[in-house]
Specification:
This protein has 290 residues and is an alpha/beta fold. It has one domain (24-289): TIM Barrel, CATH 3.20.20.370. The protein is built from 11 helices and 10 strands. Helix 2 runs parallel beside helix 4 and helix 5 (121-139) packs parallel to helix 6. Mean pLDDT is 91; it is low at 9-15.
């Protein structure tokens, strides 16, 4: 029944709290990467374990994609958030350590990139716990952000994430500003930094592997991203990006990311921030509002 739905479904008439951005900013851009590596392909089809060319799409992230993205972010003096599955940290520790060394935020992205499912709560809990342990043991970090693998979540898992210290989620598609989840029992869940699917680079740059759709050229993607930013800025909203190093770390496509972020910065009133920074600002405003 509709009344059984979690968070904001039963309160569609209630607007998200309109907390102001930090002084001088009209909107925010959240540059974030999903470092799926080979898990994107292993979860798609278990037979890909032996399909080495398919797996090499994911392997590109360690060899080229992530290092080039780190170089670009360093040149632009921008800090980003990298959502990483635990499996990827185990298999590519050097790549992940380089992300941390450069001062970027690391967020939780499951263990094997398994899509969360209400029927698999015990397994999903295990994936959460296993990755938290891996992050602490290998990277020396405790993540406060979570992006759901394959973009799915449910009430029980949101509650468990809160219990494990996850402050914010960046998975839902139902707003253009941060908001607080309300769970079915009425308690507060994590803060949500909602995603705009227009900023998912996979839709433009790698969909041809198992789809007849062609790759989108730079001009088309920038046109979409720039128009979305312009309207989001007018509305005072949040642009949460979903970039993948095996897409945006390619030679031409890294220029799309560079040019978009440079244009956003050029406004002078667009806050480019990590998920942790945005969530902390929301929490401070929420506390001030009482």
């Amino acid at each position: 029944m509709l009344t059984d739905f979690p968070h904001r479904i039963a309160n569609l008439s209630d607007p998200a709290p309109d907390y102001p951005w930090p002084a001088g900013y009209r909107c925010a851009v959240f540059p974030a990467f999903d470092v799926d590596a080979e898990t994107a392909w292993l979860q798609y089809d278990a037979k890909n374990t032996d399909r080495l060319v398919t797996l090499s799409f994911g392997g590109y992230e360690e060899r080229v994609g992530v290092p080039k993205i780190l170089d670009q972010l360093r040149a632009m003096e921008i800090k980003a958030t990298f959502f990483i599955p635990g499996w990827v940290v185990e298999v590519h520790p050097g790549m992940c350590e380089a992300i941390v060394k450069d001062g970027h935020e690391v967020g939780h992205h499951g263990y094997s990139h398994k899509r969360p499912d209400p029927a698999d709560f015990a397994v999903d809990k295990e994936e959460i716990d296993k990755t938290l342990d891996i992050f602490k043991r290998i990277l020396g970090v405790t993540p406060v952000g979570y992006r759901a693998p394959s973009g799915e979540n449910y009430d029980e898992l949101l509650g468990y994430l809160r219990e494990k210290g996850i402050v914010y989620s960046s998975s839902f598609r139902d707003d253009i500003r941060p908001y607080r989840h309300t769970l079915r029992d009425g308690s507060k869940g994590p803060v949500e930094l909602p995603v705009n699917m227009s900023f998912d680079d996979w839709l433009y740059g790698l969909s041809q592997r198992f789809s007849p759709r062609p790759m989108f050229p730079k001009e088309h993607v920038l046109s979409i991203w720039n128009d979305e930013l312009d309207q989001t800025r007018e509305w005072g909203g949040l642009v949460s990006m979903v970039m993948h190093p095996q897409v945006s770390g390619r030679p031409m496509r890294i220029g799309i990311m560079r040019d978009f972020l440079a244009r956003a910065r050029g406004y002078g009133d667009v806050w480019i921030a990590t998920g942790k920074e945005i969530a902390e600002h929301f929490l401070a405003q929420e506390k001030k509002a009482g």
